[in-house]
Amino acid sequence: MRNAMAMVSGILLAIAVGLSGCKIVSTTPDTEKVIDVRPGQTIEFKVTGFVNTPTSKTVWEVAKGNLDDRWPVYDTVLERSGTFKLTVDPDGEGTNRIRVRCVIYDLMYHLPMSPPCPEGCWSWEQTGYPKTWDIRILQDTAPVWQGDYHLWDSRDIELLKDYTTVSGSLFVKNLWACGYSSCDGDDLTNLEGIENLSSVGSLSICFNKALTSLSGLEGLTSVGDYFYIEWNSSLCGSLAEDLRNQVLARGGIGGSIEIWGNKDCTTP
Prior knowledge:
The chain is an alpha/beta fold. The protein has helices spanning 2-20, 154-160, 175-178, 237-249; strands at 24-28, 35-37, 42-49, 56-63, 74-79, 83-87, 97-110, 121-137, 144-145, 149-151, 165-172, 199-206, 222-223, 227-230, 252-253, 257-260. It is globular.
């Protein structure tokens, strides 16, 4: 009898969820544009819709790190609110890009089965696609950028033109910036504009579908940690090897070197 009552409750809850919509109708600011902010600045994010009901809730998350694995790690910072405020660290965030997202969770009933729900159970489950904001942090610290730097679009290149050093990792588009598929915005075909750059903590040029040239990196002389150029479908592997040789002949590479998955330009 208890299981039957739980099943009936689950059906009624599913109907309530369906009627409520449990989705985000609109967002502020626009999620389609990168938001430029400076250290110390506060940004307010809003979502509207049927998003905080007895059977659904919003969860606000922020991703700032774990970029070595090319995937963001989100930390939950607020639940059950249609508004979230983020204040950028006055000393910078250690990167030029962070992400904020709002995720919808629905309360779902699981039918009786073996563990973990031998008698049926309720749990919060993520539903639908989250709303995500990309935030670009601006620094006035030339000639040294403090932290990691992501080159995702032409604006990122323009902002790096006066810098000679990136103290952290230089990422040229990767899965962290692009999500699970391709990046939004313009696709980089070259890196022209950052010719002043001579030293980076590490280099990752990965998963670029339009990049055909590494021009712009002629001044690079030192890579302190790892050197990765991988899975760039339009970039000749020989160009990656040329850049590797250039750096090795000048200041050197302090860690591992990985070059593969790029275009084979040696086979007719």
